[in-house]
Amino acid sequence: MIECFDCHFHIIDHRFPLIPNKGYLPESFTVAQYRQRTRSWRCRGGAVVSGSFQGFDQDYLLAALRELGPGFVGVTQLPATASDADITRLAQAGVRGLRFNLYRGGSASAEHLTTLAKRVNELAGWHIELYVDSRELPGLFGVLADLPAVAVDHLGLSREGLPHLLKLVERGLRVKATGFGRLDFDPRTAIRDIAAANPEALMFGSDLPSTRAAQPFQDRDVALIHEMLDPAVAERVMYRNALAFYRAPE
To answer: What is this structure's pTM?
Structure first.
């Protein structure tokens, strides 16, 4: 049985507006479908993450959080013009993080990263999540090192950028052990090296429904985490690290 906090999955509900991203629109993946897909898991909760195709829409996210119930939190996208009242309202509904999608767009741009990240952290205690190719991290190093809490999606996507990612992990950056089918490398070594650099850094996520991934998530992907790590560290990666980072109620 998979025991986890699923720190990265998408809910795609066609009752709410979707924005084509380079002509792509995802198929439906509702809360009911997510529940069905993970019915055999012991899921302690998780984080619904806004995708490029959802832009700044919050209605879908609020509806998903209500339906998912206790233990689940949200990671949203906001424009730089978002008001303090908007941020506070979302925090009260269970949103815990702000995503910058630098890889596919649909979010605020990198030029707003510092000011918006610090504002949402001071106002609501939110962290920042980046969908970014780790080869781009050197240009962001100074900015990210100065932010209070940051997580990078999908092991940073590229082998070439792993050394840059590890330097930031040593400074407290978190990394999602997600999206193995999106990588240009075997995730095993990266899992081992990131956990060795900081045992609190890695956090498991399913990436369901794996939109546009060359290889969608499969339950056997979890075996890679257990294969590369001692049981106590694997337990942290599967749920303890994320429970602490997302401040999710158990």
So the answer is: 0.93
